[in-house]
Every structure is written in C-alpha cells, then in structure tokens.
Specification:
This protein is mainly alpha-helical. It has 14 helices and no strands.
Length: about 400
Amino acid sequence: MLANLSKQVKQYLVITGNYWAFTLTDGALRMLVVLYFHQLGYSPLAIAMLFLFYEIFGVITNLIGGWLGARLGLNKTMNIGLAMQIIALLMLTVPNQWLTVAYVMAAQALSGIAKDLNKMSAKSSIKLLVPKGAEGALYKWVAILTGSKNALKGVGFFLGGLLLTLLEFRGAILAMTVMLLVVWLFSLYALSEDLGKAKSKPKFREILSKSEAINWLSAARLFLFGARDVWFVVALPVYLATVFAWDRYWIGTFMATWVIAYGFVQSQAPRFTGKKQGKTPSGSAAVGWAAILAVVPLLIAVLLPSQQFGETVLIVGLLIFGALFAINSSLHSYLIVSYADSDGVSMDVGFYYMANAMGRLLGTILSGWVFQEYGLQACLYFSAAFIAIAAILSVKLPK
C-alpha cells in the first residue's frame, strides 16, 4: 500500500509518526514533572514556574520556526525538534540535588522549543496535501491529526504516572530518551523531501501575519487555551492530590483518560459542526461553540463548594468541558489551515501557534498563582471569563 503513495504523502506520514512519538514523551514529561516536584514539596506556583520557559520559548519558536520551516523545509525543523527534546530529557537525568527550579526551567525551555517545532511542522504539512478548494477534506484531516495527537498526549499522561511509579523519575526519563532516540535516527534516514519550503525565501520581517482573519483567530486562540490551562495544568492535579487525596498513579490515569477522550472528540468534530449537511464551519460557528463552552467552568465553580457532590461535580464538569473544548479547538485548527497561504504555509501557522503558546503561558502562570492564592474556584471563574473573551473576538472572523 505504501508503494502506491506519492513521495509527498510518504513524507507526511513519517512526519505524523514523528509527531505522535514526540507527543507521547511530551505528555509523559509534563505529568512526571508536576507529580514528582509536588512530591518533593514544591508549591503550586513553583511548579507552574517550572513550565514558564517552556511556554515563553514556545511563543518565540512558533514565530521563528514558521520562518525557518518556509526557508529550510519542514523535514529539517522536525529533526531539529526531535534532537532538542532528546537533549532536554537527558538534562533531567542528573542527580536530584541538581534539579533546582532554574535548572529544570532551562530543560523545559529546550523542550518547549522542540515541541513547537514539531507541532508547526506537522500542522503545516496538511495544507500541502489537500487540493485547493477541498475544504471538507481539509477539515477532516486536520481534525484527525489534532485529535490523534491529543489522544496520544493523554496516553503520555498515563505513561508518565506509570513510569514514575515503576521506574522512579530518572529511570522514567531514560526510558523515554531511548524511545525518542530511535525515532530520531529513523527520521534522519526517512525524511528527505523539503516539504513546505517556500518558492521564494521569506524575509524575517514577514513573520508577523498580515491577514486580518488570522490575527483575530490568533487572539481568540490565545484566550481559549489560556482558559483551559488556567485550571488544568497545575491547579487540577494538585487539587486532586490535596483535597481529594488521590494517589499520583490515579491522577495520571484520570487525566490521561480525559485527554484521550478529548482527542477522540476532536477527531470527530466535523460530525458536530455541519458535516451531515455538507457544510464546513465559518467564523460564526467559532462564536457559538465558544459561548456554549463558557457556561461550563462557570457552573462548576458555582457547584464545586458542595461537600456532598463536589467531587462528582468536578469530574462530570471536566468531562463536559473536555468534549466542548475539543470541538472549539478542532474548529480553530481547521480555520487556521484554511486561512493560511499555501506558499510558506508555516509562516501563518507559526504565527497562530505563537498566540496558542502565549495563551498556554498565561494560563500556566495563572494556574499556579490563582490556585495558590484563591483556590480552584477562582481558576474556574478566570476560565469562564477567558472563553467569553474568545467568543467576542471570534465575532470578527469571516462568516
């Protein structure tokens, strides 16, 4: 079957496989860091700060990475990202006394650069494989890639909790390093096409998008992902461990299951947003789905203080939030690829994911600070407000 595929499609399949393997280590590493450093006695804000450089360098990488992808080709940016993640993992295998906040932040910075080089390379490739005008097919393949990636990130969460239990922190990191090293060596051999290289060399000053639609979508994306991470990244796992006294293995398993289900819904998003009527979504769909999503964290926040049903409210609410957030995220992922210019697509996609990374950065910092000062309920109110802002910004998207 593979022999009958075009060279370009084969290259995309290799990139997708690399992206999946990378996603497993990225999800596992995040869960390992949160649970391990909570176990060492770090405060929620200190844990959030461990990811500060991860998110900051994600912002920078998406801007510069899109430009590099257009100039060098997406195969090169993918391989650079894989190599950097291997180095970041090896940095965390040092003795415990070396694992200071500053040192772990530096390792996470390298991991953040690696992650966004991989994401930008994989997402940009889709635009080049779907014929112009085939918007239904474009939405389908974007939804499948995005959903499968997040499902594997959920598996990574589970893997992180399991490896920490079985191998302890350093053993878990070494196991992931060996796996990713094999993938990187195969990638060096298999990726030979300059997929995504622009016909003309884009200038560095062109990294900022000139498209009004992409600018509004990027702003909405910033607040959408800030709304998720403001309670999901640090506040939720620490709350489950301290208030409900969940074991770290069960925290990893639950959050893994949530992200896997979230990824499945993402892959099925076209079914919920007009596929049966033969339609592809527009900017107005992004407004409507965001407005519905904003209600969920607000309701959870109001009902959470109930001593009798608090745990049930949080779990059920999280599942509903995940399903609706998955549809919103998949809609955005389709719209950016649809709006992007085919020549040098990584420039537009990189700018958009720069806003995505800024949202994660904002949400991560607030997740630690707001939870530490005011609790999970306040994080949920922030989440609802951010989603409402995303809905308002989406009004400006093309109808």
